[in-house]
Amino acid sequence: MSEFSTVVVLKPITPTVESARGGRLQYANLASAVDKHYGTDMARLNAFWDLPEGSLEEEAAAQQLANLYLLQTARRATETIREDHPDDQAQAAIWAERYTQASSEIYGVPEAEIASRLAAEQAIGLQRLAGEAGADDALRTHYAELNERYGLYDDTVESAEALFAEVAETVGTHMMSKYEKAFAALDLEGGEDQIGPADIADKIENAIQALADHDDPDWSGWTVERNDDKDSLSVVAADKKIIVGMKRASVTATQLKGLLGHEVLVHAKRGVNGSKVNYVDISLALGTLGNKPLTRPELLEFAMTRALLRNEIEEKKKPVEQIESEVYAHVNRIYRGTRGDQYSGVFTKDISYHQGFIKMGQFITERLEGGDSVDDIMDYLLLGKFDPTNERHLAKLKELEVA
């Protein structure tokens, strides 16, 4: 497939800043991205058929074909329609549905049982904490009404976290012990309550130096880049670079430890991120929980109410404007690639993060029960970015070991 340009998905389906809070999402790069690959469908398909069956190369080619179809359906789903023409409206609905189907086939869909556990845990837990904190009664009532409306309350399900609580504690202890020097280098004792982006970058730089000095000299090649235009922390493993956005929100000492443990020690070695909230919200958008699929305005109302209520229980409150920006960004990720109005599809990629958590929890549990040590298990999982339950990945890993 090297003769074909790579089909990139996320940039083309990123809504414009101007449309992010509008009634309809718009895309500056989608049409040009589709046009770039125009006419390559059949050639890509023929090349795919010529690849060895069951190989990673075949898997990669299939992924590229699926990505191209996803972009094509996104373009059709976001085309301007004449609101007073029934045929146009019907086509808009069809292409939005096809977009959701294409995304689901690539990234999967939430499992109803897991989604129900997470949703109930979220609803019950947040209401309890809000009650203890004396949160605004009207806000609590509205949140309760929304949860009732979408059938999210269920106090009979087992907590999703409880499924792997013991495993999580074992892995956490392992990470704190193995990388003790790196965590110490963060120098968080007696520090300020909130740590700003500049200090985050400095502290992570110190931690990387500690990793290079005490754990693995390969870390000496890693650098920290301070980006004035970004509002997140990301890892570019290929360039051995950790990018800290200078617009990102401040964090607590506990959150910074989590960033180091997850984004640096795990993401830098594997490239995996995780989130439960995405899983619940994508389930709501799809109708997985037995509710009707939520429109973008409906999910915005639910997510905004939840975020405002969460803010009520925090010691250091966020400005409402910041909460609104975060919620719009979060919900727009779910409907990105479509109009985001009454003709909307769902982009399901973000569920893969929590699916990965479940899969790894099951894998580690089985290996621990089989007698393997947590040290051996974690060293194996951090060999590279691979799925230990995927036979193709395991076969490729064995090839590399032999080589």
SSE run: HHHHHHHHHHEEEHHHHHHH
Compute the number of strand runs.
3
What strand order characterises the main sheet? 1-3-2
Alpha carbon gyration radius: 23 Å
User: What average pLDDT do the residues reach?
Assistant: 84
Low-confidence stretches: 269-275
In short:
With 403 residues, this protein is mainly alpha-helical.
Commentary on this structure:
- The chain has about 400 residues and is mainly alpha-helical.
- It contains 17 helices and three strands.
- The protein has helices spanning about 30-35, 40-50, 55-80, 85-105, 110-135, 135-150, 160-165, 165-180, 180-185, 195-215, 255-265, 275-285, 295-310, 320-335, 350-370, 375-380, 390-400, and strands spanning about 225, 235, 240-245.
- A three-stranded mixed β-sheet has the order 1-3-2, covered by helices on one side.
- Strand 2 and strand 3 (about 240-245) form a beta hairpin.
- The longest helix is centred in the first third of the chain and has 23 residues, at about 55-80.
- It is globular, with a radius of gyration of 23 Å.
- The chain starts with about 30 loop residues before the first helix and ends with a helix.
